[in-house]
Amino acid sequence: MSEEKYVTLDELIKRSLQEKARKDKDINLDEAWEKFSNRYNVRRPRKNLKHWAVAGFVILAITTSLFMLPTQGTAINLKVFQSIKSFISGKVQTAYISFGKENKKDTADYLTPEVYSVLKDVRYDILLPLDMMDVYKLEKAEVTNVGNSRQVELLLKGNGSEVTITQMNIVGDLNQGNSYDTEDAVMKKANVKGQEATLIVYKNGFSKLSWVDRDIFISIVGNISEDNILMLANSTKRVNLQ
């Protein structure tokens, strides 16, 4: 009696694949893909080269400018490369490129001997618009006692404006208000270096901005536009002159 042999379905599939592999050692991938796409109605994936082409063009332009201006290349802000990365990913970001070597100045370079002699005895860090001191000149400084606080007034001139920056260290409670005619001015909420600020814009061209930076109350007032007063405020940095 002959012996019956039982073969599972998996074994049959395995044998069929092995036989197919022996016959077709060289597989044509393009032909295989064509058969697969015709059967299942799919498209061959394509690489999206658009963003990379744009990025390559921008980087090439910047690199070319560096070689053309070798003495000025060090002044390019590295943020521009972050901007390129953001542009590729689809985000909007403004990039600033400045040419020319940056000459950093000490705070004392912006102060006259008279102004320095007045401010050197102030026991808290004074806020000075250091990033705008090439535009505005510090003409005068006054220091007065207001209760237990020291009030500093700085008179700056430049860019067609005359501006007074007043600051005072807060000791205890501070009550500060703003009064104005609603027909002559508009009050707005602003932001100065992450701090909430109050901006009053007058119809006669004057503006007033006030805010608190840590323990210092600051106000800026003068014949200055809304944009310029915000730029001036955001350029302030703490300076210790002692």
Concise synopsis of the structure shown:
The chain crosses the membrane at residues 49-69. By secondary structure, the chain is α+β, with helices and mostly antiparallel strands. The protein is 30% helix and 27% strand.
Please indicate the count of domains: 2
The CATH homologous superfamily of the largest domain? MucB/RseB, C-terminal domain
State the helical fraction.
25-40%
CATH topology (fold) name of the largest domain: Phosphorylase Kinase, domain 1
> What general form does the structure show?
elongated
Radius of gyration: 35 Å
| Strand arrangement in the largest pleated sheet | 2-3-4-8-7-6-5
Sheet/helix structural class: alpha+beta
CATH architecture of the largest domain: 2-Layer Sandwich
- Quickly name the level 1 CATH class of the largest domain: Alpha Beta
**Largest sheet geometry:** 7 strands, antiparallel
Q: What is the count of helical runs?
A: 6
Number of strands: 9
Low-pLDDT stretches: 69-104
Give the termini distance in whole angstroms: 114 Å
SSE ordering: HHHHHEEEEEEEEHE
Average per-residue pLDDT, rounded, comes to 73
Please indicate the percent range of residues in DSSP E strands (runs of 2 or more): 25-35%
Organism: Desulforamulus profundi
Protein name: DUF4367 domain-containing protein
InterPro entries: DUF4367 (IPR025377)
Transmembrane segments: 49-69
